[in-house]
Amino acid sequence: MAVKSTKIDTFFQHKLILIPGGAGFIGSRLARRLCDLEASVTIVDPFEIHGGANPFNLNGYENRVALFREKIEEYLVSHDLQNFDLIFNCIGLTDHHIGFENPRLDYDINCSSGLSILRAVSAAKIKPKIIGIGSRNQYGTGKSQFTEQDRLRPLDIQSVHKTTLEQYHRCYARSSGFNHAFLRLTNTFGPAQKMNGGSIGFFGEILKSSLQGREIQIYGSLERFKDLLFVEDVVEAMLLLGMCDTDQEDPVYNVGGQPCRISEILQALEQQQKQLDVRVLPFPGHIEKIDVGDAGLVTKKIKEDTGWTRKISLEKGIADTFAFYRQHGKHYFQQTSMTHN
């Protein structure tokens, strides 16, 4: 079992932190929090067109981070990782369909980039701890709840590559002796979530439709369950894992949210945006084949090892997310026509 560390508000002071992918959704929220905790933050992000990087994600923090607009492989050519205390690898391509259309691109972003970081950490004389991010989708289907010991049966290319990266974590940590942890993360939502481009996820799609006053399309049934987690709770989990001496025999942690019916999610949305236009449709074949169903994640391990618990309710998270996009939507929507009922 991991040993709990000191309080977050003092642990990260003056720590040197590297966040590859730090201009994206989760990475930028983590970077902002670390700056508030008086850490020294370096971000490496190429602002890949298919990713979630957005200059506005770092609004107000531009002068508090060192930002390198390049791929992590390019950064590593001229920078040594041994100067960092912690690396939070937030690089990720979340569009499941791109993985099938362009598996090489998905591999480069979701796996190869992380492999480059692991090799650089292995080669460093002083090895920083590294935290990686995977997905609940690595489990596939077959159970109502998954623990970290359950078999992984990924249904799409993205999840295959995340599972491969997780195994690379184990191999390099074991052979080189550095400390690491890997999150299997549920559906995350909140401010700075990507709102344009290809697939933006279940919650992104219904949030965007709601804000723009368009029809919300739900596949299957309103009684289906979704496991949602507010981004600030994810950041808290990452910080706690960065602080504690994670169990190196089994350094994988589920980070799950609040399982709720789609009908309950829509009710929470209606508290912010009245008169939702909802239409239930049959599953398109290409989506149904990779849908992971209603299963949630058991989070007992991370609670026992770090003390983490989900703090933000679905209703509070949705309210905060609506408030963010109503104020800053012009930076996230190509065509902003948000209604304010």
Characterize the overall form.
globular
User: What gap, in angstroms, lies between the N and C termini?
Assistant: 50 Å
- The CATH C-level class name of the domain at 8-193 and 228-257 and 296-312: Alpha Beta
Please state the CA-atom Rg, rounded to the nearest Å.
Answer: 19 Å
Number of strands: 14
Please report which band the strand proportion falls in: under 5%, 5-15%, 15-25%, 25-35%, 35-45% or over 45%: 15-25%
- Give the averaged pLDDT, no decimals: 90
Succession of helices and strands: HEHEEHEHHEEHEEHEEHEEHEHEHH
- Name the CATH homologous superfamily of the domain at 8-193 and 228-257 and 296-312: NAD(P)-binding Rossmann-like Domain
Return the CATH architecture of the domain at 8-193 and 228-257 and 296-312.
3-Layer(aba) Sandwich
Main β-sheet description: 7 strands, parallel
Helical stretch count? Answer: 12
Descriptive report:
The strands form four sheets. Strands 3-2-1-4-5-7-11 form a seven-stranded parallel beta sheet, sandwiched between helices. The radius of gyration is 19 Å and the shape is globular. Mean pLDDT is 90; it is low at 335-341. The protein has helices spanning 8-11, 25-36, 72-78, 96-101, 103-123, 157-176, 201-211, 231-243, 262-270, 285-288, 300-306, 314-328; strands spanning 16-20, 40-44, 65-68, 86-88, 129-135, 145-146, 180-185, 187-189, 216-219, 225-230, 252-255, 258-261, 278-281, 296-297. The protein has twelve helices and 14 strands. The protein has a domain at 8-193 and 228-257 and 296-312: NAD(P)-binding Rossmann-like Domain (Rossmann fold), CATH 3.40.50. With 341 residues, the chain is α/β, with parallel strands linked by helices. The longest helix has 21 residues, at 103-123.
